[in-house]
């Protein structure tokens, strides 16, 4: 496995596959973009560890790992930008689709309110949740949120998600080598982060938990 995947990682087209998968999963959330990033990082770290021997403080990160980070982060941000622009110009169709789901409508309102008051950290959190990226990017465009309210947080979300995913793969590869066990362990940690993010997104904020004051007669 190490030799085969190591050779694939040095092939330029593997980065194209990673980038395309990340670009498209904003529209098709079932694409395994996170799994691809984690697997590639695991192989890069495991291959480097096998070549250099046991990791040492003087070890350098393999260059393909930097290329993977750059590729994944840029693809994530560009995908968000494309979804945001498409939803903005076709906002009626996206708004109608969201309006048919009470859950999506509530989530969209919460995210919109967070963006309006500068609480865009919710955008970063949603990047880790299943389908959260699609909801945020398409919702921001459909409701015509200003680019300065959304895109900086989208860029931060892309960097945070990429850093976490690559970091998991790198740590697994360094500790356990380029193996299916290392990849599976890193993927479990990625899934756990997604489930935690989804749970936090479903938890009402303190402002939302306050009862609405009754109207005076």
Can you walk through the features of this model?
There is one protein chain. With 217 residues, the protein is mainly alpha-helical. It has one domain (2-27, 40-51, 62-204). It is 78% helix and 0% strand. The protein has 11 helices and no strands. It has helices at residues 2-10, 12-24, 33-52, 63-89, 91-99, 102-116, 121-128, 132-142, 147-176, 180-202, 206-209. Helix 7 (121-128) crosses helix 10 (180-202). The longest helix has 30 residues, at 147-176. Residues 50-59 and 207-217 have low confidence and may be disordered.
In brief:
This protein is mainly alpha-helical and 217 residues long. Helices cover 78% and strands 0% of the residues. It is elongated.
Tally the helices: 11
Proportion of helical residues? over 70%
Strand fraction equals: under 5%
| Topology order in helix (H) and strand (E) letters | HHHHHHHHHHH
- The geometry reads as elongated
Rg (CA only):
20 Å
Mean pLDDT: 76
Query: What composes the largest sheet?
Result: none
CA-to-CA gap between the ends?
A: 73 Å
List the domain count as a whole number. 1
Overall number of strands: 0
Structural class: mainly alpha
Unreliable residue stretches:
50-59, 207-217
């Amino acid at each position: 496995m190490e030799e085969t995947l190591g050779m694939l990682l040095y092939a330029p087209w593997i980065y194209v596959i990673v980038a395309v998968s990340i670009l498209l999963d904003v529209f098709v959330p079932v694409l395994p973009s996170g799994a691809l990033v984690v697997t590639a990082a695991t192989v890069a770290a495991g291959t480097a560890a096998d070549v250099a021997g046991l990791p040492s403080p003087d070890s350098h990160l393999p260059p393909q790992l930097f290329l993977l980070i750059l590729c994944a982060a840029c693809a994530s941000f560009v995908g968000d930008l494309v979804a945001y622009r498409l939803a903005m110009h076709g906002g009626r169709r996206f708004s109608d689709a969201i309006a048919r789901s009470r859950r999506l409508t509530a989530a969209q309102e919460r995210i919109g309110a967070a963006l309006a008051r500068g609480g865009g950290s919710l955008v970063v959190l949603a990047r880790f949740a299943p389908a959260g990226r699609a909801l945020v990017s398409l919702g921001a465009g459909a409701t015509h949120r200003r680019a300065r309210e959304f895109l900086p947080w989208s860029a931060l979300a892309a960097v945070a998600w990429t850093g976490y995913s690559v970091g998991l793969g790198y740590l697994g590869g360094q500790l356990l080598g380029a193996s299916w066990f290392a990849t599976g362990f890193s993927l479990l940690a990625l899934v756990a982060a997604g489930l935690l993010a989804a749970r936090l997104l479903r938890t009402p904020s303190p402002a939302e938990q306050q009862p609405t004051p009754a109207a005076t007669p």
